[in-house]
Amino acid sequence: MQSHPSPLYGIFWFLLSLVVSSLNDLIMKSLGHALPALEIVFFRFLFGALSLLPAVSVLERPNLRLHLLRGGLLFSGISLWCYGIQVVPLSVASLLGFTIPLFTLPLAYFFLKEKVTSCRWLATIGGFLGVAVIAVPSVQNFSWISLTLIAASFLFALLDVINKKVVRKESMISMLFFSALITALLSAVPTYFVWKTPSFSQLVLLFVLGLGANLIIYCILQAFKFVEASALAPYRYFEPLLASTLGFIFFQEVPESTTIFGALLILPMTLWATFYKGGAPMMRLPKKLFWCSFRK
């Protein structure tokens, strides 16, 4: 009699995806000291698309208009994220990334006509209060750079809603490949005007960054083979802890009290807004589309 695989396999793959995600942020922040954000985005998705070529055999007829829309949103979102993360501490960036489900909930309500309970609305409002605590340390010292990460999270949430509403018949490889290819093409022209020739070591890091974007998706899909998505949600708390540790080791970043207090609001409210049923259907993406926005 064949035994069922241990859920520990799923937890391992999910934690690995969070590690890769945090390392991607670390690489982007490190490269941002020498290369423009647009150039980092260009190389990241160029190498991401090239690394998928061996897996691309015969793609179905793609919906180019849809892929252009998704690529435009992805290009805008990842450019804002890459710019913001060069200035904002890694711990803050990781926490603001948690706002994606908070944006997804109202977007799903208005565009997908999904039912949302009052409890989930309250959780969303509570999460945004946590964002305000982080982004506005004081009235006199408004953290404008944090807005770039918040805007990026909004664009990623919009992209996830589009994925759920429209993209259902294309393979994962097709979605990943065209997202990376179109984002690389869209970033090629503006990269020309800010071009700085990267060194060999920087090219290696950019290649690792492109591989990492695809590896995140692979790890999450592997995790789903062993554990349900809702059961993995609490382990996302590991990501801001890891991001804070990496920020302290490599950039001597010490989380401020406002960051810690904001985390106490954002983390539980995000999980509540995402997974609280309350008589309404849970707003989550199919496994095939989960995290297709290449957030990091």
Protein model, in words:
This protein has twelve helices and no strands. The chain is mostly helical and about 300 residues long. It has one domain. Helix 2 packs across helix 9, helix 4 packs parallel to helix 7 and helix 4 packs antiparallel against helix 11 (about 240-250). The chain is globular and about 50 Å long. About 45% of the residues are buried. Mean pLDDT is about 75; it is low at about 140 and about 280-295.
Summarize the structure.
This protein is mainly α and 296 residues long. The chain has helices at residues 7-31, 37-52, 64-85, 90-97, 100-111, 118-135, 144-165, 172-193, 200-224, 229-232, 238-251, 257-275. It contains 12 helices and no strands.
| Largest sheet properties | none
Q: Which spans of ≥5 residues are poorly predicted at pLDDT below 50? A: 138-142, 279-294
- For the residues shown, what is the average pLDDT? 76
Strand content: under 5%
Total beta strands: 0
- Please give the count of helices: 12
**Quaternary assembly:** single chain
Keywords:
single chain, 296 residues, mainly alpha, 12 helices, 70% helix, globular
Q: How is the topology of this model organized?
A:
Blueprint: H1 7-31, H2 37-52, H3 64-85, H4 90-97, H5 100-111, H6 118-135, H7 144-165, H8 172-193, H9 200-224, H10 229-232, H11 238-251, H12 257-275
Helix pairs in contact: 1-9, 1-11, 2-3, 2-8, 2-9, 3-7, 3-8, 4-7, 4-11, 4-12, 5-6, 5-7, 6-12
